[in-house]
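Help needed: design a sequence for this.
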């Protein structure tokens, strides 16, 4: 039994529900004239079949596909190893240290102090950065309140004024309180904790302002941007350290 609902045919199930009564549509068999017309264009001319495409050897196409996929896989692996968990690109490796040299020596520090006294009339500083005996940066106290703190650079032979900055909350101290032997010892301690290829090391000396500050900060950099950092007091007693495995820890 079937019913009509909104123009559609439905049959009634045994439980009383209606189900659509689907029927196959009927098509008539095409005549010879219909087939002839389908093979001609609107002007009545026969339709020419398209030319077959140029065929390639399956083997050649397969080899090309393997080469492309292989190159893509290698590139993906290299890219994956060069990226961090967030897709950040790895920085270029740092140059490896050619040979170890003590980070500073007494003769160099004495020479820098003499040149600083000649340039400023004193050896008071706010901060000192040492990247080696031929790369030292010093910030001196402002000449007057409201002035900028002048910065000087030592290249191993000449002390020159390079720039100026706001003094901030930095406190002045005499350069001669810095003991080169203490800096060398801290630097060597940090190097002994490194398990990578060392690139270089640097030290910063700044008088503490609060109990949470440190006098000395030494950082040893590795080629892959890992490294070891050590904080110590002015006598070289360690107050903290931190190890970076690679650039992802920065």
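Sure. Designed sequence:
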């Amino acid at each position: 039994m079937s019913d009509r609902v909104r123009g559609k045919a439905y049959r009634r199930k045994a439980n009383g529900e209606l189900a659509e009564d689907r029927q196959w549509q009927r098509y008539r068999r095409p005549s010879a004239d219909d087939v002839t017309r389908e093979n001609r264009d609107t002007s009545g001319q026969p339709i020419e079949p398209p030319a077959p495409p140029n065929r390639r050897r399956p083997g050649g196409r397969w080899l090309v596909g393997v080469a492309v996929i292989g190159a893509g896989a290698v590139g993906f692996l290299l890219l994956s190893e060069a990226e961090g968990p967030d897709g950040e690109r790895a920085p270029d490796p740092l140059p490896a240290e050619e040979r170890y040299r003590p980070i500073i020596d007494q003769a160099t520090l004495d020479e820098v102090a003499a040149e600083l006294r000649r340039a400023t009339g004193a050896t008071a500083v706010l901060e000192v950065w040492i990247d080696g005996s031929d790369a030292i940066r010093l910030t001196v106290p402002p000449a007057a309140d409201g002035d900028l703190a002048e910065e000087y650079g030592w290249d191993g032979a000449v002390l020159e004024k390079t720039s100026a900055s706001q003094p901030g909350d930095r406190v002045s101290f005499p350069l001669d309180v810095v003991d080169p032997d203490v800096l060398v010892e801290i630097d060597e301690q940090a190097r002994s904790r490194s398990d990578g290829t060392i690139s270089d090391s640097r030290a910063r000396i700044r008088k503490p302002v609060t109990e949470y500050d440190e006098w000395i900060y030494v950082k040893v950099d590795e080629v892959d941007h890992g490294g070891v950092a050590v904080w110590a007091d002015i006598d070289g007693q360690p107050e903290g350290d931190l190890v970076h495995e690679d650039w992802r820890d920065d």
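Residues 2-38 form one domain.
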